[in-house]
Amino acid sequence: MVRKVLLIFAVLMLLIQLFRRGRNSSASASPNAIEANYQVPKEIGLLLRTSCYDCHSNNTVYPWYSQIQPFSWWLQSHVNDGKKELNFDQFNTYNIKKKKHKLDEVVEVIEKDEMPLSSYTLVHRKAVLSTQDKDKIIAWAKALKNAIN
Ligand code: HEC
Asked: Ligand 1: residues within 6 Å at CB?
């Protein structure tokens, strides 16, 4: 009985490998990217790229296990949900009110340590933001919010 269950499980695991989801990658730089339209100092750009862009841009750097189901589905759902909320590569398509609101949210999620997601920083240690990094991003987001009008 146990062997049968294990066998069925193994077969199912193999079968789900056949179902792949689309990948989040874009060959060209987006003209609507935040850095193409607003002041994003190099240092801030690097921090956002390292800690946020896997889920909030048009390009995800996929880890090796993302080739394996069900990790791949789980990961892709984070990317899809994250992009829906905020896509730095589409930032310029938002209206002014939404731009300001998203920058407010950036401040909020960083202050509350909600982002980057802890399930992500568990594996991506480089994405962990130091107190200094957080302060820099917060100061930048606040200044940019005031500059947009
Ligand atoms: C592993 C994927 C992932 C990473 C990395 C990540 N986010 Fe998110 N983010 C999400 C998901 C998923 C949501 C939507 C659901 C939620 O709020 O949990 C989200 C939502 C948001 C929102 C919308 C507000 C809200 O409360 O939901 C903001 C703003 C945000 N993220 C900013 C950031 C910033 C800034 C970083 C980098 C410092 C970052 N995120 C890193 C996945 C991620």
From this structure: 51-52, 54-56, 78, 81-82, 85-86, 105-106, 109-110, 115-117, 120
Give the pair of three-digit tokens for residue 92. Answer: 């310029």
Return all residues near 128 (Cβ < 8 A) that are at least 6 apart.
51, 116, 121
Residue 33 and residue 47: Cα distance in Å, rounded?
A: 15
The mean pLDDT of the chain is 94
Choosing from 55, 66, 125 the residue with most ligand 1 atoms within 8 A of its CB, the one to mutate for a pocket test is 55
**CB crowding 111-136: b at 16 or more within 10 Å, else e:** eeeebbeeebbeebeebebeeebbeb
Are 129 and 110 in contact by the 8 Å Cβ rule? The answer is yes
Binned at pLDDT 50, 70 and 90, residue 106 comes out as very high
Q: How far apart are the C-alpha atoms of 116 and 118, rounded to whole Å?
A: 6
Q: Are 51 and 79 in contact (CB under 8 A)?
A: no
CA-CA distances (angstroms) from residue 129 to 23, 54, 118, 138, 139? 26, 15, 11, 12, 14
Mean pLDDT of all residues in 86-102: 98
